[in-house]
Write a structure and sequence with these properties.
Helix content is 60%, strand content 10%. It has 639 residues and is of the alpha+beta class. Among the domains are: 2-56 and 211-280, Alpha-Beta Plaits (2-Layer Sandwich); 111-178; 383-448, no CATH class. Strands 2, 3, 8, 9 and 10 form a five-stranded antiparallel β-sheet that branches. A four-stranded antiparallel β-sheet has the order 5-6-4-7. Helix 14 crosses helix 16 and helix 22 packs antiparallel against helix 24. 30% of the residues are buried.
Length: 639
């Protein structure tokens, strides 16, 4: 539910300002408006320290029941974490340099730099270390001052013992300040220091909940300070004043808040330049739907809350795309496991689990209605198929064509002569069968079922878009005409392609009547849309002409529900056919399990993406303004 906001001016004595803002923060229903030109306060250093510490702590597994005993305050713990991380990064960089240095000089072996210096003094010789490419070293003339040490990575290494420092052509001198033994000792010490700091960091990371709580406390203080910073002063700074947004259902609470203080409040007019926030108050399923809406955009303050609508139709679209009761049961099982494994989930995570429960149940119900279980096929006589809604409609369609003996029946008779003896729609569907290696298939039944599913997708689209028009009918009178346009199109267009739709074979409206009535409603709706737009919008009504194409395209967009469901069913059938090829028990099981796992992943992606897309694009197009800003009152953050 979107709650209307009113703008209030709050003013009062300077002595009561602190108490007023403290009570306002505790109440949590006032969003204060500061002067637009006033510079906002910078985030306090303590908050930055907490944020940095939390970011570091999240990289380590936390065990809240293993918080280290420490005399430090939680802020000092945050500082310690940040400082330890800096030290750790410096040590890790030193470790990287040491490893590279050891790799560079390891070939010369371990020696004492002090002894080498003593030898240089006593022998009046200079020790130098060199390397050069092996291909060049092989062509070099022998030199008694150079001692060959070894070869690594296409480089030859040498030690020079000469009377003075020399440079050899095409050789690179290697300066060794610390021998490899010294470096290895330092590397060992370094890794011990790193391990100790890592242990301390893991231990301090267990204070993550306290760090988060400390951050919220600091932010509460900062937001309170920001609110006070935005007040204006009068009467030699003895009177403070500030504007605020207040939900209409909390106005009485505002007056009660001011009652015992030297503070007054008066409603003021909302200016055209004001960007009014959007105050959304939802609980339960509505809050779950709100999360979905906010993925796309924040509603405008003039919008009607679409949260529950989006949740209902997202669940329906997801179920129609997954279209398998077996998959729905797996989704439900996985969700219940998560709920059992993490019983303390709160906020968005808890609502996500609730959303998963809703779409899982919806998928199971739709799968039962369409007799779809892990892609298995059932004959029209099977009890599972008989009790399904899709099986019922398919048999009704067969009854109709059998009774009419129309072109559909005649075409089927050419392919399946056995249907000539059929006495009922069920007999017709059973007689139109094929014997295959994997068993008996019923192509005519599958064709009728697919046609019904395709038509249901279009009907769902018409219903969905019609509800969108109805929600904003007072704002857009032409919506009534476009609803009639869609209904008329559904009744009339099948006559152009000689199709039989649900209202025909259920004997609700005959084909000739549907064609005639549909034609009248189609163009009548178009005329009503243009006339209503002309009355409401004047000459801008000419833009309504383009809406006809838009509405038609939007309805056809719902065919994706059928296409994605059909693709998933085909994939499931294909993987199940591995049994017929008999590649071996192990390989057959792997193909079926792996195939269904891939299909489930695709169903999840398709269900989420297209389930949201049909709401956000096709539906929002007619009943959503968006581009809003969420109401952000001064409040104490929950721990």
């Amino acid at each position: 539910m979107i709650v209307d906001l009113q703008k209030y001016l709050v003013f009062g004595a300077k002595n009561d300002m602190d108490q007023f803002f403290a009570l306002a923060q505790k109440g949590g229903f006032l969003e204060f408006i500061g002067p637009s030109r006033r510079k906002a306060l910078e985030l306090p250093p303590a908050a930055k320290t907490f944020l940095a510490a939390i970011k570091i702590a999240k990289h380590y597994p936390t065990h809240p029941y293993e918080v280290p005993a420490s005399p430090l305050t939680i802020f000092q713990v945050a500082e310690s974490i940040v400082e330890m991380k800096k030290t750790l990064e410096a040590l890790q960089e030193e470790e990287r340099i040491l490893v590279a240095e050891i790799a560079r000089i390891a070939i010369f072996g371990d020696f004492s730099r002090q002894e080498m210096n003593e030898i240089e003094v006593e022998s009046h010789r200079v020790f130098q270390f060199f390397c050069m490419k092996s291909s060049l070293a092989s062509k070099m003339a022998p030199n008694p001052e150079l001692i060959y040490i070894g070869t690594e990575y296409d480089l030859d290494y040498f030690v020079s013992i000469a009377h003075e420092k020399v440079q050899y052509p095409k050789m690179i001198e290697i300066v060794i300040d610390r021998p490899v033994g010294t470096l290895r000792n330092r590397l060992f010490e370094l890794r011990e220091e790193i391990a100790k700091i890592e242990t301390d960091l893991r231990s301090f990371a267990n204070t993550l909940p306290e760090l988060q709580s400390g951050l919220l406390d600091v932010l509460d203080q900062h937001h309170l300070k920001m609110a006070k910073h935005n007040v204006t002063w009068d009467l030699n700074q003895n009177l403070f004043a500030i504007e605020a947004w207040v939900p209409k259902n909390r106005i009485e609470a505002l007056h009660n808040l001011c009652t015992h203080l030297n503070v007054e409040c008066e409603e003021i007019s909302i200016e055209t330049k004001d960007r009014v926030p959007t105050c959304i108050e939802n609980k339960g399923a509505g809050k779950v739907g709100e999360d979905l809406v906010l993925i796309f955009d924040t509603p405008s303050h003039t919008d009607k809350d679409p949260s529950l609508w989006v949740l209902i139709f997202f669940s329906l679209f997801f179920a129609m795309i997954a279209s398998d009761a077996g998959y729905g049961f797996l989704f439900l099982l996985a969700t219940l496991c998560i709920k059992w494994k993490f019983p303390d989930l709160r906020g968005t995570a808890k609502r996500l689990v609730k959303l998963s429960l809703i779409v899982s149940v919806a998928t199971i119900l739709w799968g039962v209605a369409t007799a779809s279980y892990f892609g298995l096929s059932f004959s029209p006589r099977n009890p599972i198929q008989k009790t399904s809604f899709l099986g019922y409609l398919s048999k009704k369609k067969a009854d109709y064509h059998l009774a009419q003996k129309d072109d559909v029946y005649e075409e089927a008779l050419k392919t399946y002569p056995a249907i000539k003896e059929a006495k009922s729609g069920e007999d017709l569907l059973l007689a139109a069968k094929k014997e295959e290696k994997r068993g008996v298939s019923y192509p005519l039944f599958e064709e009728f079922s697919n046609n019904v599913l395709l038509e249901i997708s279009l009907l769902v689209g018409i219903l969905h878009i019609s509800l969108s028009f109805l929600r904003y009918l007072l704002r857009n009178w032409a919506g009534l005409g476009w609803i009639l346009f869609m209904v008329g199109g559904y009744l009339y267009f099948p006559s152009l392609i000689h199709a039989t739709v649900i209202v025909n074979f259920l004997q609700w409206i005959s084909k000739p009547a549907a064609e005639q009535i549909g034609f009248q409603i189609l163009f009548g709706g178009l005329g009503i849309a243009l006339l209503a737009a002309l009355i409401q919008k004047g000459w801008r009504a000419l833009q309504e002409l383009f809406h006809g194409v838009q509405v038609f395209a939007d309805v056809l967009s719902y065919l994706r529900l059928y296409a994605l469901a059909f693709g998933g069913m085909v994939m499931a059938h294909t993987f199940n056919d591995a049994i017929g090829f008999n590649p071996g028990i192990f390989l057959t099981v792997m193909i079926i399990l792996g195939g269904h796992a891939i299909n489930i992943a695709l169903c999840l992606m398709g269900g989420v993406v297209h389930g949201l897309r049909l709401n956000f694009l096709e539906w929002f197009h007619y009943s959503f303004e968006g581009n809003g800003r969420l109401f952000n009152p001064l409040k104490i953050h929950k721990k």
